[in-house]
Amino acid sequence: MPSKGTRMVRWRRALALTAAGGLAVPAMMVLTGEPSVQALTYDKLKPIQKRLLSGVAAFAFNGEMQQARSQASARVTSPTRVPATAACPSRIGTNVKVNQNCLNISEPDLAGRGQAQNETSIAENPLRPSQLVTSFNDYRRGDANCYSSYSTNGGKSWQDSTPPMGFTRGTSFGGFAREYWQGGGDTSVAWDTRGNAYLSCQMFKRGQPVTEDPDLSSAFYVFRSTGTGGASWNFPGRPVVEQNDVVGSGANFLDKQLMTVDDNLSSPFRDRIYVTWTLFTGDGTAYIYEAHSADYGQIFSPPVLVSRDSTLCPNDLGSPTPQGACNANQFSQPFVGPDGTLYVTWANFNNGVGQPVGDPDGGGGDANAGAAAVTPKENFNQMLLAASTDGGATFGAPVLVGQYYDLPDCATYQNGLDLGVSCVPEAGPTTNSIFRAANYPVGSVNPVNGTVAVTFPSYINSHSKEANGCVPTGVNPDTLLDLYSGVKVPGACNNDVLVSVSTDGGATFTGSTVNPRALPSVRPERAPDVADQFWQWAQYTPRGVLVVAYRDRGYGTDQTTGFTDTSVSAGRDLVHFTPVRASTGASPPPSQFSGLFAGDYEGLSALSGVHPIWTDTRAVDLFLCRGTGAPGVPPSTCTAPAPNAAVANDEEIYTASMAVPRT
Length: 663
Fold this sequence. Notes:
- The protein is mainly β.
- It has one domain: 6 Propeller (Neuraminidase), CATH 2.120.10.
- Helix content is 6%, strand content 31%.
- The strands form ten sheets. It has a five-stranded mixed sheet with strand order 1-14-13-12-11, with no helix packed on it. A five-stranded antiparallel sheet has the order 3-4-36-33-32, with no helix packed on it. It has a four-stranded antiparallel sheet with strand order 5-6-7-8, with no helix packed on it.
- The protein is globular, with a radius of gyration of 23 Å.
- The two termini are 45 Å apart.
């Protein structure tokens, strides 16, 4: 069974062939694709490529999947007729629907297309916290697009707004007046200190064979809502990075941009906008870059390397190191401290394949212990962080935030479903929870004392380890994803959100010497009542309380059925946390997109009160009843079962407005 190092070597070699299966890569300045690199269809990608593609990218270039067609045939076998208005809820208890639309009735083989919303971000206006803006992937136009909603009453009600992303200036794409885009996603939102909101959007062309157009150009753009609180957006979007790949070479791949704005009044870089992303290139490397704007999003800087060389990256994974030894990275997140220091945290795969740091029962250890003697069954990786004190112009060397264990190989534990990605299997006999998911870091800085806290999930943790039957067992040689004993056993494996802390401005973290089995978790649990938590976001309140929102299977039968709630935890000492349920009921496993995709992350704002935001699947999906819409038979709408749900469901965006949990 290959080690994690072997797995990443295969990934490196696979990425050298990547093309139409992924997005084209902007490298900040305008690039052109390399015609000598052959573009591949999704079904020709290597297993590790399918795993590492973000959800938006995978679904953008996969066309219409055969699995969706098999779901369609199952869904129409036993329909129940209901009025179309059944798919128009505005709230569920105290949970408020954000996207203000009724369900589009899509063809069964396109379930999710024309319908779904997922992958959420939310932010409050620091001048008027009652103003909130959100962003999310929205499929109402049939394809993924960057959409937004805004509230003027603290999240009690919402209205939709539409970023004008149909086209941008085409100067970089052959000198034409316009470049028309076919899809978009991976959104994030933030505010400056002058009352302007910003939205970051990834935009792309699909290329062949999904369309007849070979164009695989892609870019990141930032839209500004100038004084309207997210009700409208400036046009056209301002480029952060652009790539001209009108010939469809697919030579490079760009993924997972996130944005933040320095909203600290005393910062020397007040109102500066930062965007970070991963740049995959044809040589198999994947470095983290950052760009910034000092003029309210009008113009962005050239790219700045974040993932610099470091002894924390002893394993080059068989690939070149043109920008340093840390050449395998993903899931970067930028955040800013009160003094204007920019922090970027991300997941890295260049660690050694020995024993993890620290004592599994607590205590310290060697920060470089990951480079010790090989233990083939170990499969941990590491979260890193780099800081910039000059407004994003340069970054210090990466430091170790902590080590973590990723979610397990989906196909191994879920009857071969969702091959090539990790997921969150339910601890029971069913195999309904098959949507893609991965563990990522999110950080925040305490405005009171400057403490830096980074949250990240780990499948091995204080509630999920060898003592209760969850043991790392290497990787699946076919999918190259993590394996564990105890995945489907109640009370054994479960994913926890951990916290690693720095009290010296990000120079060192508790997780650099403390084993993930001993780091504090944001959700108190006691065996055998342990459950999965994932898709977290974190933010300090103005009074110095760390608030973390996350998907949670700690209620009722969620852990064994694959249903999911949303919770919020708060902690002041970063060791003891108080959890509160935010969702008023559990969401069943998503059934749209064949149950394979419900986004990659979810957001939170905690400036005034707490506002978690999530993808909710309690609403039903509808389709045209069989035999209706024919001569003499008026159309009517029906629900029906899905292969992984008793009733097919719709992905929508919900939020809650809550008080900070008592600490």
